Structure formats: C-alpha cells, structure tokens
C-alpha cells in the first residue's frame, strides 16, 4: 500500500501523516509496539493470577499469545518480516519473545523441573522461537479460529512436556 493510498483510507493529509510518522515502516513499528505491549500486559496478568498453578498460567499465557496472532495477524506477520531489515523492529520482537519466556520462567517452581535452570532456560527459548514460527506460518496461510485453537492446544502440550514431562492439557479456554 502506498502512502497516498494509506492517507486516503485514513482520511488524513499527507503532511499530517509525515508529521507523526517518518515512513510506513515507522507507522508499522508503532503498531507493532502497541500490539506487543498488549500481549505483554495480558501475559503479566496471566502470570500474576494468584491461586493459579503453573500449568494454568502457561495455558492462559499461550491462549493470550494465540489470540493476539488471530486478532492482529497482519501486524504480527509484518513484525516478523520487517525484523530482517529494520533493527528497531527486530530488537523489539526479540525482546518480546524472550521476555515472554522469562516472565513465566521467573514464576516457575524449579524444584518441579528435572533439569538445571540454565538448560531449562535455553530449551524454553528454543521452544518460544518454534512457537513464534508456527504462529507466523499459520497466520500467513490464513488459518481460521479452529486451526488457531488446535495450535494452542499443541503448543500448550509442548510446553507441558518440555517443562514437566507431561502433556496433560484440559480444554483450551475461550479468549
């Protein structure tokens, strides 16, 4: 989409657009930042829920991430694609993916886990990047709500298996 098409569809003048954004990439970076902040906020709420066990927090966290990909697929796909040419987006994206893992690792009872903390952290980071790639591929292929729900269940099972050696997943909550 050109700047001309963008400003026409937004009903703003070209000078107004450039007053706020230096380029289309700057606009996309702002939108990406807003979506990532929304995801982070939802993950923090899920992780802080008192009385929820680790599995429930992980299930809810995966659910929030999947829901965000379903709701904001164009923006999140743009984040993945722009990251290869815009350092600010790549850095924002990397911090968001790693930050989401660290948020949950911070609350884990490591005594439940049979691996040392550094191995667990390394494996969780690998799993998070695999999760990101699966969500990106599903979003790019036009996956529907059912496909995203199935992926949420699979991802939750993978996290449980990696962390606890168990894949017991109860039905995915709506959200």
How many H/I helical runs?
8
Uncertain regions spanning at least 5 consecutive residues: none
Whole-angstrom Rg: 18 Å
Q: What is the CATH C level class, in words?
A: Mainly Alpha
Verbal overview:
Helix content is 76%, strand content 0%. The protein is an all-alpha fold. The mean pLDDT is 87. It has one domain (22-164): Tetracycline Repressor, domain 2 (Orthogonal Bundle), CATH 1.10.357.
Task: Give a short overview.
By secondary structure, the protein is mostly helical. It has eight helices and no strands.
Label this structure with key terms.
single chain; 175 residues; Tetracycline Repressor, domain 2; 76% helix; elongated
Layout of secondary structure:
Blueprint: H1 3-10, H2 14-20, H3 24-48, H4 54-71, H5 73-82, H6 87-107, H7 117-140, H8 145-164
Helix pairs in contact: 3-4, 3-5, 3-6, 4-5, 4-8, 6-7, 7-8
